[in-house]
Amino acid sequence: MNNTVHMTLRLTALLLLCGCTLAKVDVNVVSERTSLENQVLGTYNSLSEELLLVASVRGVSPTGKIEVKQQQSPEQQDATQALETISFHADDLESFKRLGWVGENKDGLLTPFPREIPKDIPSDLKSFAVSYNEKEFKQVIDEVNRSREVLMQRVIQTNENFTAKDLPAIRKVFAKINRQNSAPGARVQADDGAWSRK
User: Is the C or the N end of the chain the one with fewer CB within 10 Å?
Assistant: First the structure.
């Protein structure tokens, strides 16, 4: 009987060991694209935080001494201006998207479309659509696109893992973010170049 107990225990242990090797193992593999997206987002977020900290430095310390504002490099100044420009035009840009006048393209930039006033225009956009002229419209699009270009370049400059050859991949990440942040109904361009409504 003692041998039978030992044999049963050995068999049970063997079955458990075999069962463990056949158990489903979930392996979470991060693709290169996801890794790239994480790096771009991390760099962009740290860039935004850095610029906000520099912009929000008080002129007087808690002890009452006047503090000199931290100097920014020309690149930091350009990036700060780019973030401010994008923030300044955010409401107009959202209205342009709702009207179908612009779309988020596959390169992380805005693509203008004909400025037609929709027949079923929402009442809150009527006066906006009528008052905006072509010159102002084009200026806003150009300023936002220039600002986005500056920020993409700044991501390359501030992340040691990126070089100029990574710009096309970084553009794709920005395009994906811009598509995701667009409201339903906005025009968006897929990676294959096809346009659709979100």
Answer: N
